[in-house]
Amino acid sequence: MTDVWILGGTGRSGRAIAAQLRAQGIRPVLVGRDAARLVAVAEGDRTVVAGSAEAMAAEIRRQRPAAVVNTVGPFTRTATPTIRACLDGGSDYLDLANDLSAVATTLALGDSVAASGRTVVTGAGFGVTATESVVVKLCEGRAAPEQVRVDMVPSLETQAGVLGEALAATILDGIPGVAGGGRFQGRRYRDGRLVAAPIGGDPVRLTLPDGGVVTTAGMPLGELIAAQRASGAPNVVAASSEAPSSPVVRAILPVATAVLGIRPVREFAIRRLAAVKVAAKPKPREHSWGHAVVRWPDGTTREGWLRLGEAQEWTGAVPAEVVRRLLAGEGKPGAFTPAALFGPSLAQACGAEYVV
Ligand SMILES: NC(=O)c1ccc[n+]([C@@H]2O[C@H](COP(=O)([O-])OP(=O)(O)OC[C@H]3O[C@@H](n4cnc5c(N)ncnc54)[C@H](OP(=O)(O)O)[C@@H]3O)[C@@H](O)[C@H]2O)c1
């Protein structure tokens, strides 16, 4: 049982992860819903055809791979059934979830995962890993801080093609907060509680260590939960350079998100968005960055950066390194985000550098 399965092996992330695994001498098994599309990208590796997330779960139970990498979003729909199949089949699991709801739901499975003896890693993509790693690094050996802000600044090269169903559904279906919260609202932690906050709020102009300038604004994704757990801070804000920070967009956003809260409207919008053709575009800057500012109750403040290359390439490198460590028996029973499990050195092993 040494097989590593990549669910969504034909996708942008699936192909990037497969390439990084091959570079480490691990031949992945590509899993997807179309035999011809799988063979076209498999480079001779084994493929498994399964027409839906449910069919993939059934194959996991039947064939019991060592580790499963799930790249089929939205993870609010695919993570829990796939994790249950992994626990039944004795497989470790990791995914690229970066929305609050999916990350929170998976981490909440921690006790049942721990009882099974398996390791589950969620948020193993750029956003969660890059920001959480800086928080873990800044908080190492210190008491819980009072306040944390994390910012993600991805530099993404765009490949020509359609946006695709998984990404479109994740964008429009994945923004909602955790169970019980209003859908399509922003979130922040205040006094230890997850509370509503405007998407695009708290804009900050950041000067990057290489001299570039970006504006980041509130965009509560999985990194909000990861930063809170990594620091123990009661007050946490998560922001992104991809968040809408212009006053006009921020004014329109509440209306647009209220409309998208209506299920048939959202499903129509997902289909239209999935078919949108994107043109090839070079990455906008040389580096992607994770950034954190941490403040302790005595007023001490520490700031740190993580510098890395193109963000999608790194989203291939992190899962491959996590898989390598899991196959080497370095995992622990339970559900984790990547740096919570492997510490700040994980990011360095994936080619990133800290600037603290
Ligand atoms: N955490 C991060 O930083 C990060 C970074 C990058 C991506 N992501 C997330 O990862 C996910 C994948 O992104 P991507 O850019 O790789 O997307 P993509 O290129 O569209 O690939 C999606 C893959 O999922 C498969 N798929 C889509 N819908 C499916 C369904 N209903 N049943 C079975 N398979 C299905 C596709 O297979 P077909 O070939 O059959 O269509 C394809 O292989 C998204 O949710 C995205 O948000 C997260």
Descriptive overview:
The protein is globular, with a radius of gyration of 19 Å. It has helices spanning about 10-25, 35-40, 55-65, 75-90, 100-105, 110-115, 125-140, 165-175, 220-230, 245-260, 265-275, 310-325, 340, 345-350; strands at about 5, 30, 45-50, 65-70, 90-95, 120, 145-155, 160, 185-190, 195, 205, 215-220, 235-240, 275-280, 290-295, 300-310, 335, 355. The strands form four sheets. A seven-stranded parallel beta sheet has the order 3-2-1-4-5-6-17, with helices on both faces. Strands 11-12-13-7-15-16-18 form a seven-stranded mixed beta sheet. About 40% of the residues lie in helices and about 25% in strands. With about 350 residues, it is an alpha/beta fold. The protein has two domains: about 5-125 and about 310-350, 3-Layer(aba) Sandwich (Rossmann fold); about 125-310, Dihydrodipicolinate Reductase, domain 2. Helix 5 packs across helix 9 (about 220-230) and helix 8 runs antiparallel to helix 11. The protein contains 14 helices and 18 strands. NADP nicotinamide-adenine-dinucleotide phosphate binds near residues 12, 73 and 127. This is Saccharopine dehydrogenase NADP binding domain-containing protein.
